[in-house]
Amino acid sequence: MTRTVKTQVAIIGAGPSGLLLGQLLHNAGIDTVIVERQDPDYVLGRIRAGVLEQGLVELLREAGVGARMDREGLVHDGFELAFDGRCAHIDLKGLTGGKTVMIYGQTEVTRDLMEARAHCGAQTFYSASNVQPHELQGEQPYLTFEHDGETLRLDCDYIAGCDGFHGVARQSIPAGVLKEFERVYPFGWLGILADTPPVADELIYANHERGFALCSMRSPTRTRYYVQVGAEEKVEDWSDERFWNELKSRLPAEVAARLVTGPSIEKSIAPLRSFVVEPMQYGRLFLLGDAAHIVPPTGAKGLNLAASDVSTLYRILLKVYREGRSDLLEQYSAICLRRIWKAERFSWWMTSLLHRFPDTDAFSQRMQQTELDYFVGSEAGRRTIAENYVGLPYEPIE
Question: Which domains does the chain have, with CATH numbers?
């Protein structure tokens, strides 16, 4: 026996993009149901990024979930690029006419959105299995899935695929429809989370002959540090002591001297890749976030790109439901991809600029150093970095 549920927008995935889209639509009076294959604790257990572009910060406020972020988040006016044993400051606020970024963990964003959805009573099916989209090219798409031993059918107008790279949404599009663009990098980031004070007030991105390093943070008492490692490296081969020693070796001496070390509370290796699919829609199915694109974390764009997808689809659906502008649906993919490819370019450029590649020869290394020296030594160069880092503007929906 199959039970039928009806909604206007079915959302696959209860990560931050699915929850944010759901909250924005709910506040606008558009009904949503979210279907998530994991349980809430698993979703909240994912350790992810923490640098929010101003566009995402404003979108969270618009969704009514920005209060704790504004209270606890850390506004950053700039960041440091470290190379040749020195640090160069990128003044984000001064170079972009006042724009900044917010340091606030993705886990906290997800928690705030979960609480808001629970408070407003919108329906979410966690621990759903065998989720399958159907009739995507028709006017009445639907999902089928199993939940608590029951088979359900979710009828809807549109489906938003917010279920990540390995999710069912993209995989439900027939072969040959999507064109894939991919680059896999020959290294990863070994990251640790530690309850230690940050080494600096702002993030430090370091280029060093031993490899890239990043000094980041989650709060004034919790830090997130990374070092570049080979793609074949194993987490279990890295003791805390080995990690701290390697990190110190890649930082300018005065930064390394004030680094406070401590036991890690989480340690993992993230592979680096660039990935984009075109188009990002098939009939009434729309792909958002990691379901459609992945960026290396060097430019801090992953969650932020998902947010711009959310903003685009949300504003299109508003016009569809309020003004009957169904013509805008076909523009979703093109609008998103224009911004995505610019963010992919910035993330690729930052990755190329700051990492050591296995085939880097003396000439390439000197070019890398010279590129860094030119960009930080030129106001135009610093402005280019700053305007990309704080996030390019969202394209208006008209």
Answer: 2-76+99-181+273-358 (3.50.50.60)
